[in-house]
Amino acid sequence: MERTFAARGDIYYTSSPSCSLSIEDGWLVVVDGKVEGAFRHLPERYSNLPVKDFSGKLVIPGLSDLHVHAGQYQFRGLWMDEELIQWLNTHTFPEEAKYRDEGYADRAYDIFVDDLLHSTTTRASIFATIHPAATLMLCRKLEKAGLPCLVGKVNMDRNSPDFLCEDTKESIDSTLEYIEEVESSFRLVRPVITPRFIPSCTDELSRALSSIANERGLPVQTHLSENLSELEWVKELCPESTSYADAYRRLGLWGGTRTVMAHCVYSLGHEEDMLEDANIWIAHCPDSNTNLSSGLMCARYYLDRGCRIGLGSDVAGGTTLSMLRAITDAVKVSKMYWRHVDQSMKPICFREAFHMASVISGSFFGRVGSFEEGCDADIVVLDDSSIPTTVEGLGVEERLERYAYLRPHAPVAHKAVQGRWLF
Amino acid sequence: MERTFAARGDIYYTSSPSCSLSIEDGWLVVVDGKVEGAFRHLPERYSNLPVKDFSGKLVIPGLSDLHVHAGQYQFRGLWMDEELIQWLNTHTFPEEAKYRDEGYADRAYDIFVDDLLHSTTTRASIFATIHPAATLMLCRKLEKAGLPCLVGKVNMDRNSPDFLCEDTKESIDSTLEYIEEVESSFRLVRPVITPRFIPSCTDELSRALSSIANERGLPVQTHLSENLSELEWVKELCPESTSYADAYRRLGLWGGTRTVMAHCVYSLGHEEDMLEDANIWIAHCPDSNTNLSSGLMCARYYLDRGCRIGLGSDVAGGTTLSMLRAITDAVKVSKMYWRHVDQSMKPICFREAFHMASVISGSFFGRVGSFEEGCDADIVVLDDSSIPTTVEGLGVEERLERYAYLRPHAPVAHKAVQGRWLF
User: Fold this and answer.
1) Chain B residues whose beta carbon lies within 8 Å of the beta carbon of residue A78
2) Looking at the structure, do residues B413 and B285 belong to the same domain, yes or no?
3) Which pTM does this prediction carry?
4) Domain co-membership, B142 together with B244
5) What is the DSSP string of B50-106?
6) Domain span at A39
């Protein structure tokens, strides 16, 4: 009967971008860590299950963060007056270099994992740093917390400062060792191949990482078309490529295995067709794209084409791990895209953005992010009773929207992963 | 010795958009409710003053909210998938109509005032609703809380639903009664003339309100050039006017007394010169302009021209009373304006946005919003010790920037108005 229960509360989830299901005072039935279904009344056949009573609280699927830099978490909310490349060189690279020191990593990753644990996120695809020992430490903490994340040791062997640059062979060898260590040591946490981005990786390194991913069936994560100055740089580095995406393809890093491409702000018009590949997920990171002056991404285009466009916090280009904040930021960015760039691209609504953060982001990790039968029972419980108001008779979706706008950073009340309650 | 003290802490304020002053472990001296100065070491002549010890905490000037609808606070964070005119008709007007009921107003304004009290705001220019009794109740609660706000009974006598529309004469008479009641009853709270916007007010009403403002030397607040559909509507209503601003001028509502024009998103290109009038303040409301799909406002243009451009929360087009959130939203909106509309308009930085929310917004209320000698001692104390991090050696401005991004909604630790501590 472990990981088997009936949870009572105000349930919300989506089954498609256009379809949400709200059940006030409903029942979510979980058997052996998998969702059996969400019901208005508890079916007779489940009447003997242990009950978790969250009456009056919001019960939603755990959200998935498709793009976050754990090694940047300590300076979230700082130095937001700079653009990407300057920000990387001045602040990001020196901070990431500190993770050479395991004592530092230990303290820093404790803070990151504790905050992630109490957020709405149940799965995340994480960039650590180039340091294998520190990255393994992060894996250990996530495993212990019960968070089934994908964690990448970052690869960088060119155009990086001396204090944060690997030798090509060292980068490949330590990646292989890292993968074996993770695969043999952990049950929940898995490795992900993580070339930082084209400017940071030699062709030799990128091709070796492609082989490793394909041979071992490992997922890949990297950055694509985030910022105009980055695009120029990639064009200089890869003059033979027709686009930034094409440069990855030529290196074997395009959808050989399931792959997250973070940002894709400037993909529309020259590489958008490539993003329809079944193995490509787009991590839309609206907060970061605004903070680093990167630009307005057109989520509507990809969503309507059926692309796998999920959401990422992109801490520390983004300031917070909150995927609720990513949801409202995605709505806001889409409104400005509609108003200022293309009025044929209707703003995305709350329900659509929620679907992106739950079901679409979740699909990178398995059957995750919904309460349809057979999904992993990743559950988050939110207490919205602390929002004082005279407005009554709100529906479940309205209460969730309001919570997302007003309490995005609040610790969640309860969280389960695969039917196991973490708190 | 009342309202006289030396406060110790990590002090931050600005004296111009380009000049901020940070004093770590400094002293802010207040005599009889006015700032004497901020000092690195406590001058000998003040050594006998009572000490308020906020060591390790951030000590900043109280912020001023140039535009907020108290009568919309109860539905903040809801129904954010709609544009201005639809949102007004579907949600806003029916909610504002509830303030006819004084029992409802009592409960609702308790919530509003309590949240405002614990925010970083010390002054606000507030729209209530058309109802005089409820609006007086709001004034009473603000006075009791110690918040010296400007509060307007809203005027609307056309193009409004029956349940939220006044007869012209009734609107004028009740405004006069309201003003007299406020002026005779309260010490801190003051009235402000508040025609909702051109579509809601007949010419007769607008002209009468202009006379009242000019005869009594009362400030004025209204809306200007917020949303494209609103602009079209005003053009139809005022075919003889060369612009929306010109329509106000023809009605006598342009800077006869000090006046807040909220939004001004679409003023650039045809009425921007009028915004240089010494009696016009611009309330830039970035959160609302994004939520209601209004558009990206060019704060840089007005800031560099020396216009009085402050910030407003515009709850409930904006979702929160937090002026720290308004500051970071202003930075973010200016980045997207720079990237997508006009690359000659450099993004505004944190310091500039802070100056807008403190000094420029504050100047609508008097000598408020800075710690220069002679300013009213409006003080807010923020505790940033709850932000866990391994990053050390941050300056005061960096800590404040981070707090604004990460803890915008947190209740402040302490607050003083005119040297009197509210908590």
Assistant:
1) 391, 394, 398, 401-402, 405
2) no
3) 0.98
4) yes
5) PEEEEEEEEEEEPEEEEEEEGGGGGGTTS-TTS-HHHHIIIIIHHHHHGGGSHHHHH
6) 5-61+370-421
